[in-house]
Amino acid sequence: MSQTTDTYLLLRAFAQELARCGMRAACTSPGSRSAPLVLTLAREPGLRCYSHIDERCSGFFALGLAKASGLPVAVTCTSGTAAAQLLAPAIEAREARVPLVLLTADRPAELRENGAGQAIDQLKLYGSAAKWFFEVELPRADEAGLRWIRTLACRAYATSLEGSPGAVHLNFPLREPLVSDRELPRDDTARPGGAPFLRRRPARLAPPRGMNFGVEFAHLKERLAAGRRGVIVAGRHERTDGFGEAAGELAQRAGWPLLADPLSGARRGTAAIAHYDALLRDPHLAGRLRPDFVLRVGDLPVSKPLREWLAGMADVPQIAIDPEGAWQDPASVLWESMALEPVDVLRALIADGETTAAEDWLSQWSSADERAAEAIGAVLSDSGLSEPRLAVELGMLLPSEATLFVASSMPVRDIETFWPVRTDPPRVLCNRGANGIDGTVSSAFGAAAAATGPVLLLIGDVALAHDLGGLLAAGRLGLKLTIVLLENGGGGIFDFLPVAQSRMARLPDAAAVTKEHPSQGAGDIFTRHVTTPTGLDFARAGALYGLAHERAGDLPSFRDALERALASEHSAIIEVRTDRSENVALHRRVWDAVAVALSSPGGAAGPPA
Ligand SMILES: Cc1ncc(C[n+]2csc(CCOP(=O)(O)OP(=O)(O)O)c2C)c(N)n1
Ligand SMILES: [Mg+2]
């Protein structure tokens, strides 16, 4: 057998095992060195292959797909800088705990460090972002070699999922000739009945199901039973395992307020306090509503007031339950960190039924929340189609089977601050592991490839410009995504930050035209270098990439556009224009109105307890 036939035979067994383990999708990008990998993956009947031009888009698409499906996705690319493009998605995968299998093609040893083209050092290219690196020197495709590569595929798949999910990196040195037209011989080394060659039991044994967690659970129960003023804080948790329902139900039964980021899926039920971000900005109320224990599940929510509130309660028992026991304690205030499956713990606590919440505890929170809701509603109804209003609208209008992908920056914050409580909320996803604005369009298209219902992306102008190439997926892959674009002339988030007022961000006009600053047309460093308005006409981007585009100037036209986009089979951009400084002023009006509502006679805020 020729070496090329051996390569294809081994790779065919490798791809087959990935599919037998449960993988359903792979992403490819073009190249010569990677041809054996690309052709093999595209020919594997068990994998749906998505082709991308830009490897970074490919990696982020795979990330969105893996996030939405819960299954590892393979990504392959050619050697050189192509492989370097996968670093950002690998980092996000590690931080957000999303399983990926990265398969990079490389030059063989005799073509490294000697001037051969497109050869860079790809060994451990992703550093600590990859959970596992392995250099795949292919053996002969005899029986032992085929058994080995099948086992390797099973190992790569399992490792991406095991413990804390993330990216594994396999680097394949491949020799020319890279293609051959010879028929591949039979390979009878696979297990019968479509089973994976090696079935892996995860190294981390799941805690026993049901009520019996033994010592851990008894201890947790004791702690909670002692509390009269408990609070549940639920953050990002993107696995579809009933987490949101369980958190909602426990809070409701126990009479504990539930402070749930929409990224947790838990902002539901009668105990959910939707406006905690606005409420906890009020220091009196934050003091009065001090709990005597906090149960934390999921990641830490995005809200800064909530994070600061938790950080200021080092003397209150705070217990975090995390499936992988991740350390999520930037303020060093946790009392206990339990590596247990949160859904199981929540369900066991529901079944246990014993809680001792103080009678008026939840009602204190709920009445404050209602007052905040009224105050916010009054401000927003006067202000037309604003960024906060859009978050409310999406929260109310999206069908429960929809998925909303939100971009970092203000979209994820507004969704947290303004998203209403619903009994059947749609799924909300976000690349929140490393908080990047990169790759967001691609990840949303990846989620669209996995979802059964409609998928929407809420994104700012800078984040959209950052991943404009991700729009290629609409036409090339025939996927449908509805993009709600908030065009506010740059990064609106920076207007909320001290840099907006900083004297360092302005040059005196005279200095702007001196020799030291020849490139400055004006003295406004803030606009040019921090908020960075794109100057793009996104209608033209829509035209270039084949997406419908329309502008919505008021609430009725937004609702119409949304309804049309949801009913259509094609991708579309709905653009809403807002003004950055008006947006800051509106947010401040909202917070002021909430503060006034809480301090008015009958309001919830009184002197600290
Ligand atoms: C890859 C990456 N580069 C830069 C940043 C810093 N950053 C955070 S928000 C932001 C601006 C985003 O602007 P836009 O998408 O228009 O959203 P807006 O702030 O207007 O809501 C930038 C550049 C980042 N988070 N990630
Ligand atoms: Mg913007």
Walk me through what this model shows.
There is one protein chain. 40% of the residues lie in helices and 14% in strands. The chain is of the alpha/beta class and 609 residues long. The protein folds into three domains: 3-175, 3-Layer(aba) Sandwich (Rossmann fold); 215-360, TPP-binding domain (Rossmann fold); 371-594, Thiamin diphosphate (ThDP)-binding fold, Pyr/PP domains (Rossmann fold, 3-Layer(aba) Sandwich), CATH 3.40.50.970. Strands 2-1-3-4-6-5 form a six-stranded parallel beta sheet, with helices on both faces. The longest helix has 21 residues, at 361-381. The chain is globular and about 85 Å long. The model has no long low-confidence stretch (mean pLDDT 93). Residues 407-411, 435-438, 460-463, 488, 490-493 line the site of thiamine diphosphate.
Kindly list the characteristics that best describe this protein.
Rossmann fold; binds magnesium ion; 14% strand; alpha/beta; 40% helix; binds thiamine diphosphate; 3 domains; 609 residues; 6-stranded parallel beta sheet; 17 strands; globular
Estimate nothing, just give the exact number of structural domains. 3
What is the CATH topology of the largest domain? Answer: Rossmann fold
Low-pLDDT residue spans: none
State which percent range the strand residues make up.
5-15%
Structural class based on helices, strands and sheet pairing: alpha/beta
By CATH reckoning, the class of the largest domain would read Alpha Beta
Bound molecules: thiamine diphosphate, magnesium ion
What number is the mean pLDDT? 93
**CATH homologous superfamily designation of the largest domain:** Thiamin diphosphate (ThDP)-binding fold, Pyr/PP domains
CATH architecture of the largest domain: 3-Layer(aba) Sandwich
What characterizes the major β-sheet?
A: 6 strands, parallel
The tally of strands reads: 17
Cα-atom radius of gyration: 26 Å
